[in-house]
Amino acid sequence: MGRMENDSNDNRKTAPAAAASATTGPGIAHSETGSVRTLLAETGPMAVGVRRHRDGDGIPLVLVPAFPVDARMWDACAREILEQTTDDPALAAMPVLALEMPGSGSTPVPSAAASGRVDADGALPGALDAMAESFVAAMRLLGYEQAVWVGVSMGGYAVLDIQRLHPETVAGVGLLDSKPTIDSEETRRNRLEIAAKAEEEESVWPVMGFARPDIHDSEIKRSPAFVEMFRGWIGQQSPEGVAWRERMAAGRPDLYGALDSVSVPMLVLTGELAPLSGPSVMRPLARRVASAVFVLLPRTGHFTPVERPAAVATALTALCRQAVCSPLK
Questions:
Q1: For 150-188, how does the pLDDT look when each residue is reduced to its tens digit (9 = 90+)?
Q2: Which residue of 114, 156, 238, 325 has the fewest CB atoms within a 10 Å radius of its CB?
Q3: Which residue blocks in the chain are alpha helix, DSSP H?
Q4: 25's torsion region: left (phi>0), alpha (psi -120 to 50) or beta?
């Protein structure tokens, strides 16, 4: 279904770095910086930020980022996707959008009421569902009935939850460097400790370790340019947003069963060097889904769309072509 928007004078706050802004459609605030248009869709339980790399008709490709950064992590990969699909009659008009998780980028941290019940240890067991509902509501507000949903790491949790809650909105699935199981007790405890430290110290330093090079990382992730870029992205997050996303992830349900309902084209992709979601974890997931294609990127770590944007774009373009031209439903 194509995009539908109506005029409105309802002005809303947009990203502070916006070069120009205008509001179009009820509950939608637009801004523009360079070649990327952004909007804040205030619908569903939580507001959703959207980076619009290409408008168009038909089924959109929707990209969800990893923690602890924001949707900018998809920028290089999105540019590659646009280049690879420009001359493709089936995909040239495909909208390409990247979503912001609540509390990331300029998207506000959800209220306590929107976040739902709080476990005794501080985890938010209903927050992932609320976020998934908000993502679906935002796409419907923009006029899209279905999408090819792609998530990397924590973004993959959202995509699998959308598959679980609203399979009718899923034309294709991309699961990158992610896993559907709940956290171990140790990982859950660590997430909640990081959330508490971020708020108490009013700092994102507790998650800056994601940008520090490790001997087991890929050469790309260890490069000074990559480290500086990642540090910049993390440094622009809010401590409250970091804390909310950690508590949301700590409280998420087990999503393994969502794989059993996937009947659309699916991509399962990981980096050879990914520490927690490498081939030993991701390959069995692909085998569980009849429609899944498994892609392993050699000498690549956990943040595949940033480390290998062209290779990931090629895999996603193939996924979109299959979803649009040869749907399996």
A1: 999 999 999 999 999 999 999 999 999 998 999 999 999
A2: 325
A3: 75-85, 112-115, 127-141, 154-165, 185-201, 219-222, 224-235, 239-250, 279-288, 304-307, 309-325
A4: left
CATH number at residue 187: 3.40.50.1820
**Per-residue confidence band for 328, with pLDDT thresholds at 50, 70 and 90:** low
List pLDDT tens digits, range 10-19: 322 223 333 2
Q: pLDDT (tens digit, 9 = 90+) per residue, 130-144?
A: 999 999 999 999 999
Domain that holds residue 27: 20-325
Total structural domains within the chain: 1
The span from the CA of 146 to the CA of 301, in Å, is 30
DSSP state of 145: S
> Residue 33: is it exposed, middle or buried by C-beta count within 10 angstroms (0-12/13-18/19+)?
middle
**Residue 97 φ/ψ region, left for φ over 0, alpha for ψ in the -120 to 50 degree band, beta for the rest:** beta
Phi-psi region of 83 (alpha: psi -120 to 50; beta: other; left: phi over 0): alpha
SS3 183: coil
H or E element at residue 28: strand 28-33
138 burial (CB, 10 Å; 0-12 / 13-18 / 19+) is: buried
- Residue 242 phi, psi (nearest 5): -60, -45
Centroid of chain to Cα 270: 15
Question: For residues 98 and 72, what is the distance between their CA atoms, to the nearest angstrom?
Answer: 8
DSSP per-residue letters across 256-325: GGGGGG--S-EEEEEETT-SSSSHHHHHHHHHHSTTEEEEEETT--S-HHHHSHHHHHHHHHHHHHHHHH
Residue 222 domain-assigned (yes or no): yes
